[in-house]
Amino acid sequence: MSKIWNSRRPLLKRRAFSLLEVLVTVALLGILGAVAFQSSHRFREGATSTKLDSDVAAINQSIKVYLANGGSLAGVTDPAAVLDKLKTRRGASDAAAYAGLRSDMIDGRVTAVPQTTAEANSNAPRAVWNATARRFEVARRGSGGIARFDLSAAAGKVNHGEETRAAGAVDLNRGNGWIWSYQDVAAPVLTQPRPVPLTNTAPPSPVAVAPPGRLAAPVLSAAGGRYQYNTFPSTITLTNPNGTGRIMVARQWTVAGVQWELYQSPVAMSPNGNLLAYVQSTTAEHSDSVSVGGTYEVETIDLQQPTIQPGAAYLDLGVNNTLTIALQNPNPSAYGSTIEYSILGGAYTAYTEPLAISPSSYPNGFEIAARVVRSGVGFRASQPVTQWMPIKLKAPLIDKNQAESIFTITISDPNPPNKASMKYQIKDLNNGSLTAWQSYTVPFKLNGDNYVKGFEVITYASATAVRYLDSDASNVQGRSFFGTKVAERVVLVLDTSGSMSLNRRLVKVKEEAKKLLSAMPATGKAAVVSFSTTVVTRFAYQETTPAKVTSAQAAINSLVASGSTNYTGALSTALSIVTANPDVEQVVFLSDGAPDGGTSAHATILSQVDQIAAKGITLSAIGYEMTAAAEKKLIADMNTRGVAKPKKP
Quick check: 69 pLDDT over 50? Predict the structure, then answer.
């Protein structure tokens, strides 16, 4: 370092060497060769001395700030005690009203390392406390010296507490209102202006100049160290406390040396930037000051992870309702941080509003990752937080084909490949028994004659891949209507007499009729006839496509119970329909009581049943909640006579 400091002084004018000087030079070269091995050791000593000078200057500056803000070092003689005083804080009782610095004045980790006995007996530099001048000074003699100032993590954990310091000239207001504490006074009474005698004044006293010797180091508006992003000093102002000399600053230095330049205006400081400064002497009686400064770092803040808030627990491929996913930033708004998100490992995108996710867009799974970021120095992006959204599978597609009493059941998987297996079971509608769940592989056949009241095939998609959920169940019935199997081409004849209002009979019949129509294949056909006092064809005989089934169900919804029970009128209308449509396979007749309208003779009614059966069409009679034996016998006779007769060639 000695070469650096010597480089500040201008070289003397050069002149020619005399013979005597040449001889002296040769002798000196020999001496220098003998002591060259000591240069490294001296360089280290110079670096240690320079560091001690710099540390002493920085601590003395902190002492000035401490004293200027009401602190007291009266009676303090121990260097360690001085440092402890700088680490205290202004007491809470008067801190609120003090218009100045209230906190500690020095890093709590700073410790004073005393000299060893060997160091004290040597000429090594040491810092000593001058209690009179209230400052540390560097000397090369004397006991009780400080060899160096170090940073100790253990010392930084010690709480040096609070102390009572002198009050300021003006207090802050402790209550509400104006910032300063003051008392309103009456405005002075204005007086007439009067002449003011003018007298000559003595010129101001000259600025005090430092006594001969080493100049004091420049004062920095902010010392080097670690700062949070919102307190980082963007500019550093330097002040010369000597009244003589000039400030030199350096922003960078290399092995070749320090690049010094004259200080002229505040120095712009960027994070992790460096600054070194000293006061250069401009007179012979002063020497340059020690160098002060350091590195200005920004304390990195680790941002917290965002939270992911989906609007539902899973994505449903079957329903395919749009799912909303919101992201929340838990960090203080003052940080100015933002959220970025990534879907399925894609590029991160700035988050501005809740995401609308369509399940059909992610049939093979959905994963979102999110993180909090901030541009600029002083912040570290949060670790990403990820969340998989489970995928609920679509229910299987189930189809049945009927050839006479044999049903062929086909189940299809509507989901992405290798995500599910199809499971099914069969329910006997006669007694409600269920088979065990089975894995579907190929279409299978069921004999409808084995199920008195029909059957139901229930199936669902069982998830076989991670993060997929089982589907809802779907089903299909071997059609039955109150336990009666129903063909694919049928005429429904429904009683809507006044007694059908009892015990919600008509409500239940309408529900079952609508279910039956929903189970009809699109290639089937149906007609709906209602009868009471009069007979009305509610739905003409036609194909049971989905659109037409909806229309038929609407017609059934409109049925109202009233009037008498006209069996013969209902059977006559059914006979007309089957006569006009030879492809009809079955007439289903439902009533809750005996006929009391039209021709109610038993024989006449059975004759009409015979006419329908003679056309090769089965008539199935249902006595719904019948009580009288005669009524039940009529229904039984209709079923006996209603078996389809072979059609004549």
Answer: yes
73 burial level (CB within 10 Å; 0-12, 13-18, 19+): middle
Position of tokens 């001085």? 82
Q: What is the CATH number of domain 213-298?
A: 2.60.40
Share of the chain above pLDDT 70, in %: 86
Rounded to an integer, what distance in angstroms lies between the CA atom of residue 242 and that of residue 617? 124
Rounded Cα–Cα distance for residues 135 and 24 (Å): 45
Nearest alpha carbon to residue 608 among 569, 645, 642, 571? 571
- 553's enclosing H/E stretch is helix 546-557
484-641 has the same fold as 397-478: no
CA 394, CA 410: separation in Å to the nearest integer?
Answer: 16
Residue showing tokens 């100015």: 336
In this predicted model, what pLDDT tens digit does every residue of 93-125 receive, in sequence order?
A: 777 777 777 788 888 898 989 988 888 888 788
**Higher-pLDDT residue of 613, 78:** 613
**Angle of helix 39-68 relative to helix 79-86, nearest 10 degrees?**
50
Tokens of 62: 């902190």
The bridge status of strand 397-403 relative to strand 257-258 is: unpaired
pLDDT reported for residue 304: 95
Structure tokens at 607: 């004759």
Three-state SS at 623: strand
Domain ranges of the chain: 40-163, 213-298, 308-327+337-389, 397-478, 484-641
User: What is the end-to-end Cα distance of the chain in Å, rounded?
Assistant: 128
The one-letter amino acid code at 525 reads K
CATH class (in words) of the domain with range 397-478: mainly beta
pLDDT tens by residue, 561-588:
999 999 999 999 999 999 999 999 999 9
Phi, psi of 180 (to 5 degrees): -95, 150
Beta bridge partner(s), residue 469 = 392
CATH class of 484-641: alpha beta
Whole-angstrom Cα distance, residue 23 to residue 342? 81
Q: Position 43: which residue type?
A: F
The pLDDT value recorded for residue 21 is: 52
Residue indicated by tokens 């008539």: 619
Three-state secondary structure string covering 400-427: EEEECCEEEEEEECCCCCCCEEEEEEEE
